[in-house]
Amino acid sequence: MWRIITGVYKPLNFVETPQSLLEISKVLSFILFEILGQFLILTKNFV
Asked: Please, which of 5, 20, 40, 44 could form a disulfide with 12 given CB 3.0 to 4.6 Å?
Protein backbone atom coordinates (compact mmCIF):
# COMPACT_ATOMS: atom_id res chain seq x y z
CA MET A 1 0.00 0.00 0.00
CA TRP A 2 2.89 2.37 0.76
CA ARG A 3 4.12 1.97 -2.81
CA ILE A 4 0.81 3.35 -4.06
CA ILE A 5 1.01 6.33 -1.71
CA THR A 6 4.58 7.27 -2.70
CA GLY A 7 3.72 6.66 -6.35
CA VAL A 8 0.90 9.17 -6.10
CA TYR A 9 2.74 11.77 -4.02
CA LYS A 10 5.98 11.91 -6.04
CA PRO A 11 4.39 13.52 -9.14
CA LEU A 12 2.40 15.91 -6.93
CA ASN A 13 5.61 17.33 -5.44
CA PHE A 14 6.31 19.01 -8.78
CA VAL A 15 2.82 20.39 -9.35
CA GLU A 16 1.03 22.38 -6.67
CA THR A 17 -2.39 23.21 -8.03
CA PRO A 18 -5.98 22.85 -6.80
CA GLN A 19 -6.11 19.76 -9.01
CA SER A 20 -3.27 18.13 -7.07
CA LEU A 21 -4.98 19.05 -3.79
CA LEU A 22 -8.09 17.24 -5.02
CA GLU A 23 -6.00 14.20 -5.87
CA ILE A 24 -4.36 14.24 -2.44
CA SER A 25 -7.75 14.45 -0.70
CA LYS A 26 -8.99 11.54 -2.84
CA VAL A 27 -5.98 9.43 -1.86
CA LEU A 28 -6.28 10.35 1.82
CA SER A 29 -10.00 9.51 1.91
CA PHE A 30 -9.30 6.22 0.11
CA ILE A 31 -6.64 5.30 2.66
CA LEU A 32 -8.98 6.31 5.49
CA PHE A 33 -11.74 4.05 4.15
CA GLU A 34 -9.24 1.20 3.72
CA ILE A 35 -8.13 1.52 7.35
CA LEU A 36 -11.74 1.72 8.54
CA GLY A 37 -12.61 -1.35 6.47
CA GLN A 38 -9.71 -3.34 7.92
CA PHE A 39 -10.70 -2.24 11.42
CA LEU A 40 -14.32 -3.32 10.88
CA ILE A 41 -13.17 -6.71 9.57
CA LEU A 42 -10.96 -7.17 12.65
CA THR A 43 -13.77 -6.26 15.05
CA LYS A 44 -16.18 -8.60 13.25
CA ASN A 45 -13.70 -11.46 13.67
CA PHE A 46 -13.42 -10.86 17.41
CA VAL A 47 -17.16 -10.52 18.08
From this structure: 20
